Amino acid sequence: MNLRAIVPPRRNRLLAASLVVATLWAAAASGLLLFHDDLLAGFVARQGAMQVAYEARLAALQAELDRGGSARAEAQDAVAARLDEVAARQADLERRQAVLTGLVRTTAPGAIDPTTTGALPGRAPAPEPDLGLRGLDTARPERRSARDVDLRLAALAGRLDGLAAAQVIGLDRITERAAGEIWRLRRVLGRTGLDLQRPLESGLGGPLVPIDPSPFAAAVAVTARTLGDAQVLRRLAARLPLDRPLRRDRGLASSFGPRLDPFTRGLALHTGLDLKAEMGEPAFATAPGRVVSAEPAGGYGNMVEIEHGHGVVTRFAHLARIDVRPGQWLRAGDLVGRVGSTGRSTGAHLHYETRIDGEPVDPQGFLEAGRELAEGEP
To answer: Cβ neighbours of residue 87 under 8 Å, at least 6 residues apart?
Structure first.
């Protein structure tokens, strides 16, 4: 067999096989490269999608945080607004309390207890009370829960409501007390014969300063008018001759009105009271006033006349000695003179008169009124 003839075909086959293997390897390598590119592209796509989703989640969380911060800011603003409202109410109640305190001071001593007229707790007629507003910190809302803040503000509002109601009750009490005093003074002073319907004081005026037209202010105005009327009557009572002219009450020798004249034994008008007294006993002014006359006056003997205002005068007659002078101002209880029997008199006694607008009226009305006021309301 010719070996040279056989070898070339085998080489050709090897070459062919090598060529096939190289071709397959190249194809595999190319496929692997193509598959690797696909994997890489998929990975990149998945990473991009994950990044987009992450960024969207971050944006959503940021929006949620922004909404939460806005809600907290709105809640804080709402709490601050409610706190401002409560603080404004507190300030208003404090102003009202100042008005009530001023009204109380115009009443008679001991008539009204300021602590029962809605005074804010923990203080005397209490400016600047602490209702807890200073302890409520809205600058840091995280320190208190929303429920705690709501409960605290609701409690404060309820407390203010209670104080407002107490102030209204106190105002009503002041008005009722003053109205009762007016009724009593008019009833008692009516016994004197003085006309209480005519103006008791004059010379009023001043600039107009309007006040708050709220219901409370209107009620305060009514109370102030009532207290003013009571005060006018108290001042009137303090100037009227309601005291007794003698320290010791020995009774009457002769009363006011028609009687048998001790000299003529005929019917005559007795214009005062003849008070039993001892010679030289002191006689005292029965109200503040100015001495109009202090001299002998006919049948009155030594007489002192004192003007007390509102047309009211008193006369002290038959005095043994006069201890005042015309024009002198006297207080209630000041010495006027000494009891005697000068003028048209049958013995030592004090002739005591009260006159209104020049007309004699029974002094007993003044004395009884003074006694009732001194004893207090039955």
So the answer is: 133
Quick check: 321 pLDDT over 80? yes
Between CA 88 and CA 140 the distance in angstroms is 21
- β-pairing verdict for 349-356 and 282-284: unpaired
Phi-psi region of 127 (alpha: psi -120 to 50; beta: other; left: phi over 0): beta
* pLDDT (tens digit per residue) in 243-282: 999 999 898 988 888 777 776 777 778 889 999 999 999 9
Structural contact between residues 360 and 271, judged by C-beta atoms closer than 8 angstroms: yes
Instruction: Let me know the angle formed at the C-alpha of 323 by 245 and 304, rounded to the nearest 5 degrees.
Output: 60
Nearest CA among 370, 340, 334, 343 for reference residue 354: 370
- Amino acid found at 145: S
Helix axes 363-375, 146-189, angle to 10 degrees: 150
15-32 residue pLDDT tens: 777 776 677 666 666 665
